[in-house]
Every structure is written in structure tokens, then in C-alpha cells.
């Protein structure tokens, strides 16, 4: 018999498992609102035009080789990525005190940042929001950090528990790491206002807490790359240190290319150089060096002003379609007179709406209406279309009635 005979069947991933269940359902009316991937109004995955153009340029380049990248990835991509998140005019970039490495999308960048901190930073506790993206606690625990939660979401208002957040960060040990969603908080769609960000910044700096930004939705939330990076830029503008993990999965639609970056903003270029040298020691035994194709696409787009502008237009188009789905779903529930206050559908930001539906209601909607979503009541607005909104509204109406 097999040497693995005693291995237990592992449960499906709570998020990716939704798609597994969806794929098994033969119903023609089924809708997948589980996975965080953009779909067109026709329900189809989208490859951006600008990505196709960049790939064409890369294919036509006769010097396109398949040699290994350096451990830190494509240098040009790293520079452009730092510029994208911190701003072209960022003093930290000008002063050469940002260490940037290419990562395996957002997940890999978070993991490398987490492991670097576990090896070299004095306070090995990271505070993450309650709730947060389900992968965060696992990524940071396996990085070697101790994971604690700070209050974030208030189910009563379906908004930010700002008081609880400040209280929990106030009582964190000095130097503790704090994971912050740069924009479009997943799964709640609830972001602090700029005034609240400023208060968070003051509190964190006064206590010496270390910000670790997760930026998975830059430009995808509001349609503006600059607006969605404001939180991060506030923390860099004060001259303090921070980490930022970037993903190009959503904003360039490069999901499966696994392209992202980790930047560590330091106080001096001397420190940044040493930090980079240690990041290489984290990466080398983990996956040696990152893949070349996705980073080449991103660099091609970011360095060419024509392609860059075209990207911002396509990005805004995706963001606007999601925002219009919020309006359509809200209107459809209003029209049905569905009990409850649904204004949070309009207020929440980014790819997801945290509906407030409980796991029983979610199970009911899946069973009776073939609507697939995570059991916490999160729906991906990007998976909706004008055609499927009425069906979803019927399901929600039946679930809460
Ligand atoms: N952080 C958050 C908050 C996310 O929602 C996601 C995507 N689901 C990621 C990070 C990372 O995704 P990826 O590794 O595909 O870039």
C-alpha cells in the first residue's frame, strides 16, 4: 500500500473552493461571485488591449531571451513599480532609499516581506485587520511572524470600527508590524477616509508601529492610480519607514502571470542597500528568481507614455463598470422593497461588497438560486453583469425575507 496511505483529504480553499463548486453545478442560471477576478459585461475574463500590445512588442523584439532574471527580478520593472505606488516625485525614490524586489504577485511579495521581517526585525508580531483576506494569517504565520488582529469592521454600521481600530493599535507593543490594505479593503470594501488615515498615521508613528501595506487594487478601486495610493504616500511623505507589497493581478489583469513587487522604504540609501542584500537571501532558496514574462509586460507598459495612458483608460473602464454594478444592485433591491438598509452596497469600495448576509443565507442562495459566493457574505461585484443583477436581487430578497 502507499506510503501516503494515512494522508487525510484537505479541505478546499475557502475562496478558490467556491469556483470548484460552481464548476460542478450544471445549472444554466448559475453565477460565480466568489473569485476576485474581473469579468466583462458578457461574463468573460478580460485581457487588456494594452497587455496584448505589450506582448506583441515583446514577441517582435529579437533580443527577447529566456535567461534567468537576477534574484531581485527585472531592475527596470522594480524602479517603475516603486514610482507607480510612491509617486514619480517621491523623495524616498529620489534619495535612493527604497529597496524593491520583484515578487510572485501580491501573495509572494507579502511572503518575502514577512520572512524578511521575521529574520531581521525586532518585533515579530504583525497586526492584521479583523476580518481580512483569508490568506493573510497563513502567509504571515508561515513567514515566522506571530499574527494578532486589530478591530476593523463594524457589522452594525457595515462600516469602519474606527474607535476599535485606534484602541487596538494603541495597545499594540511598540514596534509591532501593522498590515494595512492600501485601498479597497478585502473582504469588507470599507476604507478609512483620508482624515482617518491621517489619524492612523499619527498614532502609528507616535508608537513606532511599522506599516506594511498590501496594495492589490491600485487604480481598480476609484479608477485613479494616484487616488488609490494616497494612504501609502502619506506614510512615505513623513519620512518614516514602511513596506509595500504590490500586485498587478487586478489592475493589469495579469492574475496568472504572477507579477508583483515588494518595496521597503528605509531612512537612508545605505540601509536600503543592506536590506536588499538580505531580501536576496530570503528569495534565493525559496524560488531562486522570479519569472520574466509578466514583469516584462508591466515594464513595457509603464515606461511608454502612450501605453501607460491607454492602460489608465482601460483601468478606469473596469473600475467604472464595477461601480455601476453597485448602483444596479442597489436599485434592484430598492425596487423589490427588500427589507433592510442596503446603502453599504453603494458606499463600499473596490471589487467586493460585504453584503451582511450570513452563512445560512449564503447556503440558501447557492442551493435555491445557484449563486456562488464565500460564506462570509462577500460578493465580487466584478462577477456581476446587468443580466445577472436581477437574479441576484431575487436571491437576496428571498434569503432575507
Ligand atoms: N491582498 C489582497 C487583499 C488580495 O485581495 C489579493 C488578491 N485576492 C492579494 C493580496 C494577492 O493576490 P495575488 O497574489 O494574486 O496578487
TrEMBL record:
Subunit structure: Homodimer.
Note in the entry: In eukaryotes there are cytoplasmic, mitochondrial and chloroplastic isozymes.
Pfam families per the UniProt record, alphabetical: Aminotran_1_2 (PF00155)
Keyword Lipid biosynthesis carried by entry: no
Descriptive protein name: Aspartate aminotransferase
PROSITE patterns linked to this entry: AA_TRANSFER_CLASS_1
Lineage, top ranks: Eukaryota, Viridiplantae, Streptophyta, Embryophyta, Tracheophyta
Cofactor(s) for this UniProt protein: pyridoxal 5'-phosphate
Species of origin: Platanthera zijinensis
GO cellular component: mitochondrion
Example GO biological process: amino acid metabolic process
GO molecular function, one term: pyridoxal phosphate binding
Family in the record: Belongs to the class-I pyridoxal-phosphate-dependent aminotransferase family.
Reactions it catalyzes: L-aspartate + 2-oxoglutarate = oxaloacetate + L-glutamate
Nucleotidyltransferase recorded as keyword: no
All copies of domain Aminotransferase class I/classII large, residue ranges: 30-396
EC class (word): transferase
Matches recorded under PANTHER family: ASPARTATE AMINOTRANSFERASE (PTHR11879), ASPARTATE AMINOTRANSFERASE, MITOCHONDRIAL (PTHR11879:SF22)
EC number: 2.6.1.1
Keywords in alphabetical order: Aminotransferase, Pyridoxal phosphate, Transferase
Amino acid at each position: 500500500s502507499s506510503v501516503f496511505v494515512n494522508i487525510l483529504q484537505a479541505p478546499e480553499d475557502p475562496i478558490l473552493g467556491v469556483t470548484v463548486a460552481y464548476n460542478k453545478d450544471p445549472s444554466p442560471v448559475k453565477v460565480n461571485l466568489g473569485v476576485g477576478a474581473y469579468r466583462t459585461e458578457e461574463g468573460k475574463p478580460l485581457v487588456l488591449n494594452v497587455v496584448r500590445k505589450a506582448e506583441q512588442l515583446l514577441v517582435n523584439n529579437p533580443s527577447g531571451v529566456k535567461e534567468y532574471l537576477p534574484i531581485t527580478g527585472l531592475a527596470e520593472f522594480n524602479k517603475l513599480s516603486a514610482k507607480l505606488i510612491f509617486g514619480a516625485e517621491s523623495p524616498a525614490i529620489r534619495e535612493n532609499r527604497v529597496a524593491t524586489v520583484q515578487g510572485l504577485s501580491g501573495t509572494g511579495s507579502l511572503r518575502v516581506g514577512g520572512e524578511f521581517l521575521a529574520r531581521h526585525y525586532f518585533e515579530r508580531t504583525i497586526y492584521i485587520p479583523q476580518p481580512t483576506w483569508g490568506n493573510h494569517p497563513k502567509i504571515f504565520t508561515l513567514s515566522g511572524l506571530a499574527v494578532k488582529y486589530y478591530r476593523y469592521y463594524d457589522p452594525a454600521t457595515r462600516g469602519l470600527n474606527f474607535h476599535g481600530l485606534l484602541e487596538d493599535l494603541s495597545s499594540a507593543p511598540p514596534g509591532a508590524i501593522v498590515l494595512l490594505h492600501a485601498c479597497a479593503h478585502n473582504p469588507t470594501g470599507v476604507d478609512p477616509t483620508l482624515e482617518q488615515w491621517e489619524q492612523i498615521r499619527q498614532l502609528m508613528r507616535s508608537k513606532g508601529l511599522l506599516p506594511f501595506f498590501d496594495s492589490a487594487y491600485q487604480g481598480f478601486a476609484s479608477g485613479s492610480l494616484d487616488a488609490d495610493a494616497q494612504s501609502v504616500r502619506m506614510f512615505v511623505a513623513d519620512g518614516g519607514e514602511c513596506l509595500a507589497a504590490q500586485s498587478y493581478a487586478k489592475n493589469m489583469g495579469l492574475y496568472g502571470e504572477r507579477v508583483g513587487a515588494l518595496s521597503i522604504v528605509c531612512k537612508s540609501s545605505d540601509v536600503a542597500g543592506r536590506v536588499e542584500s538580505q531580501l536576496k537571501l530570503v528569495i534565493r532558496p525559496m524560488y531562486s528568481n522570479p519569472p520574466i514574462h509578466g514583469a516584462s509586460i508591466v515594464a513595457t507598459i509603464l515606461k511608454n507614455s502612450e501605453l501607460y495612458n491607454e492602460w489608465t483608460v482601460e483601468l478606469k473602464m473596469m473600475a467604472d463598470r464595477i461601480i455601476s454594478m453597485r448602483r444596479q444592485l442597489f436599485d434592484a433591491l430598492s425596487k423589490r422593497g427588500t427589507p433592510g438598509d442596503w446603502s453599504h452596497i453603494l458606499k463600499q469600495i473596490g471589487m467586493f461588497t460585504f453584503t451582511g448576509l450570513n452563512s445560512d443565507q449564503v447556503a440558501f442562495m447557492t442551493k435555491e438560486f445557484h449563486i456562488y459566493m464565500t460564506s462570509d457574505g462577500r460578493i465580487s461585484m466584478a462577477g456581476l453583469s446587468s443580466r445577472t443583477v436581477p437574479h441576484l436581487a431575487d436571491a437576496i430578497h428571498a434569503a432575507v425575507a
